[in-house]
């Protein structure tokens, strides 16, 4: 009875730290180094200042043509190639347009995303109703949520397109300079390298876009596959294995968690992947090239299922290596119950083998193979009736397997940013309430200890990544400021072609960073839309009908699983929407307070005649305003950084205080072993290292 009460306390504590709102906030914390818009906007005022200085050049010195060697088919973006100075004015105009539409569209995104939390509440309320009510009301809510995502996608695409236009214009202008100006061979080589880098980034962005579309299209297919996996598992679940089956079903639902960080990193990862491919084209697959980001994401999503299979085997053997023959073998039907685990591992292995090569594939394959090997050993013992089993060896095999599973799970969560504590689905929570005392308490408690350490380590790593990104942005900001100071030190008439060229390169860099963030926004909205579409792709009635004769689990029907699957997808969508709303609020605040009046000043400067006595005063006003804005944004970044560090500490303390009070103490040796496994997985460890040390 005391054990059951302790287990009940742990389940309640887990429920407290897995509340949907807490998981959303944790996602926000995990995403901070990757979707940190107040930092990404630090180059904003400098970009505007550079555009202003470019406009001023047109008032200064003698002009020249860049139309000596035009590209085949003519210029695509340059309107006036016979005047370099007019081209600079065109760049300033286009930059002004981009920042203007960015502010307007982001404010609309903020207003649209504001309604998603209420819609999510309505969806959850509907999912608690009878199937007929769900079928009647749910599609309308999901369609409304999808239309918001689609509209936001269009708004973000429009901004991305505007920044792309400015970047392509600058790129074409620099290319024209290469072929039109002589005597600057060394300087033009730097320009050439810059353009090559830009082209590689564009190639990476296009490849990432294509990969992302394929990934989003696969989400619908994944829902169907997950349901088929559920059917297969339920069709063959052995008698008395309800707790094991429920653990596996929960892992199926958790494998559907779509992580915003994986999508946010897609362009950066694809760029590394392309560079890796070009540098190691002669190497063996995965012999030095970067990971394929989609393959990595897909394989990592199976970590929770592999963990459930490891736990299933662990329950068959006690600490001394004694086998629970009642759980392992059904004498009446002469059925080896662990065959279910073996078949499930074989299905997972088949899926993993179909993925492209990446750093986690070898470890996942090895775990599946180990599970199959242990199952074969258990089957031989069960069918032969052997009494002289090497208990110590068997227990060591399972212990070794569980260590690798834990290592792989930690590595997967570190790579994708998936939270260790996922929110409980409504029907899963009801099942837990009805079955307290029947679940494997030792597994629940061991997993809870492990997840606490995982969560602490992930939040610690996130804090370190945030610090690195903060230092990196500070350095980049200083570099941009230096070129601006150099430019301003020149009299207008002294700003020659080479200075203009350097300004264009820096402008290209600054605007390129802003554009990359808009690419991420587009990905986020496409993800929301795809997640919702996966819920709408098949009627709930169809899912339930295809369940056929599936016996299911007592107190948890196939109907419950379908509703939980829909909840999971809708929660994933609302999680991303919450992140988007946070970003849009930050952008709108920073843009309103520090950018838009500078953009207006740039507009006035562009429209003024250079001979106007107020022209120089407006230039100085814009320069001073941009300097003040840059400092104000930097102060805001430091303030947000302190808030982030405080929130990280708060989340760690909540997890520790809620769960540690409910959990039995573990020995120092056990705690050290858990911490070592988590750190090895999350601090990046190769398969060779894993084989060496585990």
Automatic annotation (TrEMBL):
Which species is this record about?
Eublepharis macularius
Keywords linked to the UniProt accession: Coiled coil
Q: Coiled-coil ranges per the record?
A: 181-225
Q: What is this protein called?
A: Uncharacterized protein LOC129326900
Look up the domain of life of the source: Eukaryota
């Amino acid at each position: 009875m005391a054990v059951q009460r302790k287990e009940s306390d742990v389940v309640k504590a887990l429920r407290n730290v897995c509340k949907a709102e807490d998981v959303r906030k944790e996602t926000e914390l995990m995403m901070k180094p990757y979707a940190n818009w107040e930092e990404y906007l630090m180059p904003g005022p400098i970009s505007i200042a550079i555009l202003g200085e470019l406009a001023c050049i047109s008032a200064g010195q003698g002009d020249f043509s860049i139309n000596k060697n035009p590209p085949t088919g003519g210029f695509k973006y340059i309107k006036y190639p016979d005047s370099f100075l007019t081209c600079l004015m065109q760049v300033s105009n286009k930059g002004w347009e981009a920042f203007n539409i960015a502010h307007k569209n982001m404010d609309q995104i903020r207003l649209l995303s504001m309604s998603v939390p209420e819609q999510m509440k309505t969806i959850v309320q509907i999912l608690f109703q009878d199937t007929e009510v769900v079928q009647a009301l749910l599609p309308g809510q999901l369609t409304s949520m999808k239309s918001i995502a689609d509209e936001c996608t269009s708004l973000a695409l429009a901004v991305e397109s505007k920044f792309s236009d400015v970047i392509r214009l600058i790129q074409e202008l620099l290319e024209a300079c290469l072929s039109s100006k002589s005597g600057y061979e060394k300087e033009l080589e730097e320009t050439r390298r810059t353009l090559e880098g830009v082209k590689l980034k564009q190639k990476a962005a296009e490849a990432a876009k294509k990969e992302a579309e394929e990934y989003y299209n696969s989400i619908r297919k994944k829902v169907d596959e997950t349901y088929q996996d559920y059917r297969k598992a339920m069709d063959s679940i052995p008698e008395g294995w309800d707790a094991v089956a429920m653990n596996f079903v929960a892992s199926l639902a958790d494998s559907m968690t779509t992580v915003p960080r994986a999508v946010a990193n897609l362009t950066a990862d694809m760029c590394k992947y392309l560079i890796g491919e070009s540098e190691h084209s002669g190497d063996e697959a995965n012999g030095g090239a970067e990971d394929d980001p989609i393959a990595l994401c897909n394989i990592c999503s199976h970590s929770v299922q592999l963990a459930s299979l490891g736990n299933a085997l662990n329950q068959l053997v006690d600490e001394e290596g004694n086998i629970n023959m009642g759980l392992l073998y059904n004498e009446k039907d002469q059925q080896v119950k662990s065959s279910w685990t073996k078949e499930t591992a074989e299905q997972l292995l088949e899926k993993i083998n179909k993925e492209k090569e990446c750093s986690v594939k070898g470890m996942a394959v090895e775990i599946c193979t180990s599970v199959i090997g242990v199952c074969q050993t258990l089957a031989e013992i069960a069918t032969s009736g052997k009494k002289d089993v090497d208990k110590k060896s068997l227990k060591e095999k399972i212990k070794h397997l569980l260590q690798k599973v834990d290592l792989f799970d930690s590595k997967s969560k570190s790579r994708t940013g998936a939270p260790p504590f996922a929110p409980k689905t409504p029907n899963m929570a009801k099942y837990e309430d009805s079955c307290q005392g029947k679940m494997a308490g030792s597994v629940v408690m061991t997993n809870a200890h492990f997840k606490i350490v995982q969560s602490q380590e992930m939040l610690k790593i996130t804090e370190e990544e945030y610090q690195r990104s903060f230092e990196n942005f500070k350095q980049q900001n200083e570099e941009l400021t230096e070129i601006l100071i150099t430019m301003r030190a020149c009299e207008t008439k002294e700003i020659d072609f080479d200075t203009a060229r350097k300004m264009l390169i820096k402008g290209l860099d600054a605007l390129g960073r802003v554009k990359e963030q808009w690419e991420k926004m587009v990905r986020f909205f496409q993800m929301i839309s795809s997640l919702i579409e996966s819920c709408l792709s098949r009627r709930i009635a169809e899912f339930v009908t295809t369940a056929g004769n599936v016996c299911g689990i007592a107190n948890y029907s196939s109907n419950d699983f379908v509703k939980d699957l829909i909840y999971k997808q809708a929660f994933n969508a609302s999680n991303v929407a919450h992140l988007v709303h946070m970003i849009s609020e930050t952008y709108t605040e920073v843009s309103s307070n520090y950018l838009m009046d500078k953009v207006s000043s740039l507009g006035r400067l562009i429209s003024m005649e250079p001979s106007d006595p107020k022209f120089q005063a407006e230039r100085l006003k814009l320069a001073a305003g941009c300097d003040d804005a840059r400092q104000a944004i930097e102060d805001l970044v430091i303030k947000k950084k302190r808030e982030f560090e405080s929130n990280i500490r708060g989340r760690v303390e909540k997890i520790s205080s809620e769960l540690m009070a409910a959990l039995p103490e573990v020995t120092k040796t056990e705690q050290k072993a858990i911490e070592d496994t988590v750190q090895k997985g999350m601090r990046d460890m190769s398969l060779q290292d894993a084989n060496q040390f585990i």
